[in-house]
Amino acid sequence: MSDDEVTAAVIRSGIVAILRAPTADGFAAVADVLVGAGITALEVTLTSRGAIEALAGLRRQLPTSVTVGGGTVLTEDDAKAAVDAGAEFLVSPVLDTSLVAASPVPFYPGTSTPTEMYEAHKAGAPLVKLFPAGGLGPRFLRDVRGPLPQIDVMPTGGIKIEDIADWLLAGAKAVGVGSPLIGDAASGGSMKALAARARHAVSAVAFARS
């Protein structure tokens, strides 16, 4: 896919499921459940042991309709390793405009102020991560989008499943959801419970967009 198509696919999913655990051993099984429930954008965080190998495995395992990216990208080495493993997009908790500009795939940097959001947009970020979003709330995004409607935003961090619709209605293009969605499924927890949470999340996106 082209860069524009990758970001369009992330937005179409509405949810980026963030896979983070002490070890990435359980990510393959978790990904199957998420995709089965209708979530088609996954982020493998590089802080999980074995993340690069897991990312490469997911790219082989999952259909091309599923977009897979690398998360917690902080350096050029992180970016290269993730892209070499098959990452179609990169996500960071911080804003480093040099990484945004140099990335061979869409790079979604972390921001927490209107100024950072604007700087990320100017640097070429097609989607700007608002992080940590939970403490700011949908009202913050709605207020920021008044003067900055040209910036596409993906709130991440502290977003509960029951808040997804509110964020999308406030103008978010997609949301990044980690532990409220994944829970302990990547570490031996219930896959049945994961499937229920994932279906609830997908329904929230459908509701907000209906």
TrEMBL record:
Has keyword Lipid metabolism?
Answer: no
InterPro entries found in the cross-reference section: Aldlse_KDPG_KHG, Aldolase_TIM, KDPG/KHG_AS_2
**PROSITE patterns linked to this entry:** ALDOLASE_KDPG_KHG_2 (PS00160)
Quote the pathway field.
Answer: Carbohydrate acid metabolism
User: Pfam families of this UniProt entry?
Assistant: Aldolase
Q: Sorted alphabetically, which keywords does the UniProt record give?
A: Carbohydrate metabolism, Lyase
Q: How does it assemble?
A: Homotrimer.
Q: Which protein family is it in?
A: Belongs to the KHG/KDPG aldolase family.
Name of the protein in its database record: Bifunctional 4-hydroxy-2-oxoglutarate aldolase/2-dehydro-3-deoxy-phosphogluconate aldolase
Q: Which organism is it from?
A: Paractinoplanes globisporus
